[in-house]
Amino acid sequence: MRVVFLTGAGISAESGIPTFRGKSGLWNNYKPEDLATPTAFMRDPVLVWKWYDWRRGIVSKAKPNRAHILIAELEKEIDVIVITQNVDGLHQKAGSTRVLELHGNIWRVRCTACYDTYYNYEVPLREIPPRCVNCGGILRPDVVWFGEEIPANILEESFRISENCEVMVVVGTSGVVYPAAYLPFIAKRAGARLVEINPEDTPISSISDMKIREKASGGMEICVKYLRSLL
Hints:
Layout: E1 2-7, H1 9-13, H2 32-35, H3 38-43, H4 45-61, H5 66-74, E2 79-84, H6 90-94, E3 99-101, E4 104-111, E5 117-119, E6 139-143, H7 152-163, E7 167-171, H8 183-189, E8 193-197, E9 210-212, H9 216-230
Parallel strand pairs: 1-2, 1-7, 2-3, 7-8, 8-9
Antiparallel strand pairs: 4-5, 4-6
Helix pairs in contact: 5-9, 7-8
């Protein structure tokens, strides 16, 4: 059985990572939408990197929770692929081996001069803004900011996977951030069963075959039993 998990901020919130749109998403009286943009970075890369340095500090202390672990463990039983809107890398830390990161990774950096990309795990950063180890150019987080497009290869692969899964489980996502919000509709249209794990209704609820009104960890416990019943 081929199962795709589409995950959002709700799954990482249980690991202590603030949701992007919640009250704790504010920093120094700035909204994330005012900092996570190419324009903000060009205007003040030091400010943007101070915010990311703060976020990386939070993520560095976070551990995968039960939901992340259950998804990773399912790989031993069924064909599992994770498509995540999160940039924290917790799915990989939990043991998931097939992860598509729609919005990039907070630990990966990209040079604005030579465009090289690599991982940087310094916490805190030794230099703000950090410089490329190859050419000395200013680095930026290798994440997708507001106003930027998801890399075409990642998006095309996500569409393909969604069209070819038998079950899609949507965990902790608001269903309002596009193009990720299209994926459940693509899967449903292609004949997949759709399971939603979220304490609240979302735009995805109306097309879901099964709605689990729990937070991510509790919902995944129920979901695992359901998936095993389909085997």
